[in-house]
Hints:
This protein has 685 residues and is of the alpha+beta class. It starts with 8 loop residues before the first helix and ends with a helix.
Amino acid sequence: MTIDMTQFLQTFYEESFEGLDVMESELLNLDVGAADEETINTIFRAAHSIKGGSGTFGLTAVAEYTHVMETLLDEMRDGRRQVTQESVDVLLRSVDVLRGMLTALRDEEDLDSQSIGESQKELDVLLASGGDAVVSGTTAAQSTDQVQQSEEKNTGWKISFSPHINMLKTGNDTVRMLRELAELGEMELTANVENIPDFSELDPEESHMRWNIHLSGDVTEEQIREIFEWVDDECDLELQPIKSAPATDTEKQPEAAPATTERRSSADRRSGDRRKASSESASIRVSIDKVDELINTVGELVITQSMLGQFGEAEEFTPEHIEKLRDGLGQLERYTRELQESVMRIRMLPISFVFQRFPRLVHDLSGKLNKQIELKMSGEGTELDKTVMEKIGDPLVHLVRNSIDHGIEMPDVRKQNGKSEMGVVHLNAYHQGGNIVIEITDDGAGLNREKILNKAIKSGLVSESDQLTDEQIDDLVFHPGLSTADEVSDISGRGVGMDVVRKNIRSLGGAVDVKSMPGKGSTFSIRLPLTLAILDGQLVTVGDETYIVPLVSIVESIQVKQADVNLINGRGEVYKLRDEYIPVVRLYHMFGNKPQSTTLDDGLLVVVEAEGQKMALYVDDLQGQQQVVIKSLETNFKKVEGISGATILGDGTVALILDISGLVLLNKIAGVPDLSVVDSDIEAA
């Protein structure tokens, strides 16, 4: 009898990726020169498990590659080799290569032979050196080539730049990069447009062009790579130096001037591979406690069902039976709710699954930028729905990279300002109500509000007469109009791609805002629902339609006092609630249905808050509160602005779920009051 091993292959891949995460985490924790023996043993065991599993499943390339890593770790474990920073860096790069190999094999794609070969040479050179060689990212063969080429003068570069199709969606601008490249020297540019689809199928947010570039001048490879560093994992980049004199041996000339294929930075490649692995994960690990709780609840449901079944067998239905039936239905409702909560908890995972990618990111970027950065993490045990967790990774990476690259100052600048040379980036997560809040805090320079405001005025986003609060100025960094080349250097780069971050978080039903103190640092706060499947909602009626307002967005509900309603000429209605003016939004205007009454006195105002702004929704009446199962409107119908989804009520009717953040945006587009000037307008009136 033969066993089909392929049925276990998916489990092997999942366990291998977990093992690679362990290896990476422990490598970052190694103390150079005085490494803890148990830490090295943990790394060795993870590598050994991957090697053994890959051999079992016939993944020969992975087994042979991991064997070299295992040999190096074995020498460190036995004390025959000292742990150096160079060996740690080589092993970290090897983890990246191994992750790429496993990802390619899982997805049935071709292996990247070039990166595997280069990494294999690094490991072989390190093994042959007995621990004394210094290997810092280039192989011995590459170093030899560089020595041979050092006597030749570099007159320019041939560059092949192929953006990935979704590069523009991450807030990066091809034109800006090419413009910066042209400032380095004389540039000849050829565009390859063969992949551009027909106009009817063209998506303006997709990138279909490729570029062949001839750059002349005294330009270093580092200068070119610096321009493209933000899109390391979002493009294919090849650099080939142009030499003034050919090699004497023409047959060896290709080796003397090899095409240097751009490889993604280790941190970004890891993020990309992890992102793909997590998004396609078909399983989830559940603790036995959650399974036991689920089984117990099902057992109670069976007992309740048996009790209710007795009423169907009764010959007579007495008043006593009615009372017992009510009790049974109450139990059924309670246990159904518990079963629902138990099932939802199965999908909940600690956010440490997202946070664990950031020590490596900080390690790599701090070394690249010559900054000293300490990463602090708290709240790693805070649980979040698996679906939300898989989609929040990219926005978090963008915010953390911004904090490291543009928030934290250089060590000498920090010292001059009386700060420690070691900058701090703090990741924190906690539950608040029905949401999870994730904060990214740095103790850097903070946002330069004067420059942000000047740029916004120059871009036409605001006028010089507008009186904006500090919070409103800070919020401008999320506007796409500030994502320009000048923004990178003049405003710490925080405007670049931040609109994409906010867009992605809003798509999850969340919100993001920033608080900053000049010279002290900034805090970006992300607020997300715990799950995308179920929400607690308040049912409201407008005419014959029923809408659901998420409870987490509701501040209060009030009866209208006509004396507190003010009409701002050309800007709509506002309601004075205690000491603030709140814009009134009539939902029947927004969605085009007929209300029971258009007089504010006859209805109610539901005060909601999103994106740091309040507004009052005018409705005919309030119904009950209940949990609803969210159904995607975009999947089943089409996207509707101001609506986040739909649900089916107990009577079988469909109710639309309001997107409060979307309504705030629609309000702005429709020309509702600008609250920064409402007070002065009312006083003038």
